[in-house]
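Researcher: Let's do a round of design. I'm pasting the structure tokens now; please hold your answer until I've finished.
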């Protein structure tokens, strides 16, 4: 794989890269419509493949928040064309890495020494690379280590990257009025947190200590003395990424074991810690030879305040879903319905969210749930397709819901997809045995 000696960091350079990508995508559409005039039966598969490749190629050279968007989109299997899911999934752990000279320069800047002065051994070429940083294998005092190095300029470019995509997102999601700014600020703040490795080190140690008792989970040890604001050192964990494991696994018991560990891990965080690992994609989980789950990245942790947590999980209770008055009350508490809504908007969004929540809360309605049930995920896909085709939805003000929905919904959507990949059958209440205060 090619390496990068430089990453565009200022707004003009990054905007220019996106402009070049836009020209390529425009050319793909011209070619597609030209072919379609000759062959009216032509489908969009080739167009999707070409667009996905050109968009990804542009984003992987930018890295940072631009590539992080691709990573987030790759989790959306039920709505995005498969070509985009396949290509954007590479952003989870396989993108062009920094060159060895740039790695040494970054190390010297943030630790005051070159890597070979810090570790007994240090591999100059990365073992894997993702959207914000890349990982190198090192050793010290007989221990094999994973050293994560952040790409230069990532934190500085977040605001400008979001400013570039804001007009597109505003149109895509029909966001109107000044209230839409809260969503962009939520994304910006979380991305900035992900570039703070001092914060990630603190979050990692806290999460490891809190979740040690959960069965079939393993965590790396972290080394504060070998870490800084842009460099993070931890134990090297031997295993394969979750997506690699699910590609070949035929053992349902292993899938169930891993799924139970994953489910308990997330439910314990949500209900006991009230903060949650909000980046559940396959690249953030390894699996060892004994089918233990190993979370390896705690850069994106979402705190869940009571004013959101309480009504959110009350809506997982049939008592609230099936009572129109209580249901309506919770929609206001979660900012889904607003005081300035018209009667038509109240009726419309109440119906939409009743359908949405009735489906998405199914795993919480019973003591056990089978995430290999393709009918459940087919319902999600159909619902997503219905929403994208709903012309009335485009006319409504899209500013719906508390800002906390962004990362909490992303968390559950990603969790459900991982559980489906594992074909896991789980006890949905098992996590309670790990809690100091049982529900």
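Researcher: That's everything. Go ahead.
Model: Designed sequence:
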């Amino acid at each position: 794989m090619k390496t990068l000696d430089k990453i565009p960091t200022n707004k003009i350079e990054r905007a220019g890269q996106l402009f070049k990508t836009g020209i390529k995508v425009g050319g793909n559409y011209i070619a597609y419509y030209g072919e379609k005039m000759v062959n009216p039966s032509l489908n969009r598969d080739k167009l999707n493949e070409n667009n996905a490749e050109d968009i990804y190629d542009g984003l992987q050279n930018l890295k940072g928040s631009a590539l992080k968007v691709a990573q987030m989109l790759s989790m959306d299997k039920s709505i995005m064309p498969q070509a985009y899911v396949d290509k954007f999934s590479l952003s989870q752990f396989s993108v062009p890495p920094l060159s060895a000279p740039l790695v040494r320069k970054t190390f010297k800047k943030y630790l005051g020494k070159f890597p070979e002065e810090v570790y007994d051994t240090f591999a100059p070429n990365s073992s894997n690379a993702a959207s914000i940083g890349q990982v190198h294998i090192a050793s010290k005092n007989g221990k094999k280590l994973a050293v994560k190095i952040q790409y230069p300029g990532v934190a500085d470019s977040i605001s400008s990257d979001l400013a570039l995509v804001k007009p597109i997102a505003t149109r895509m999601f029909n966001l109107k009025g000044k209230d839409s700014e809260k969503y962009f600020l939520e994304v910006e703040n979380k991305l900035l947190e992900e570039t703070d490795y001092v914060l990630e080190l603190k979050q990692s140690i806290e999460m490891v200590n809190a979740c040690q008792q959960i069965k079939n989970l393993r965590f790396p040890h972290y080394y504060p003395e070998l870490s800084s604001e842009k460099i993070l050192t931890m134990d090297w964990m031997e295993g394969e990424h979750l997506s690699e494991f699910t590609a070949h696994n035929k053992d349902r018991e292993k899938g169930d074991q891993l799924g139970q560990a994953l489910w308990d891990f997330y439910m314990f965080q949500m209900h006991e810690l009230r903060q949650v690992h909000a980046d559940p994609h396959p690249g953030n989980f390894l699996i060892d030879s004994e089918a233990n789950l190993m979370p390896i990245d705690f850069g994106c942790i979402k705190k869940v305040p009571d004013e959101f947590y309480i009504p959110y999980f009350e809506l997982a209770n049939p008592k609230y879903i099936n009572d129109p008055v209580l249901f309506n009350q919770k929609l206001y508490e979660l900012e889904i319905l607003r005081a300035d809504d018209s009667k038509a908007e109240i009726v419309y969004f109440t119906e939409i969210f009743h359908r949405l929540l009735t489906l998405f809360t199914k795993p919480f309605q019973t003591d056990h749930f089978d995430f290999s049930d393709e009918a459940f995920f087919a319902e999600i896909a159909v619902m997503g397709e219905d929403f994208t085709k709903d012309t009335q939805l485009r006319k409504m003000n899209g500013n719906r819901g508390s800002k906390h929905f962004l990362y909490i919904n992303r968390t559950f959507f990603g969790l459900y997809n991982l559980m489906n990949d594992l074909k896991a059958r789980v006890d949905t209440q098992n996590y309670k045995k790990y809690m100091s205060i049982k529900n």
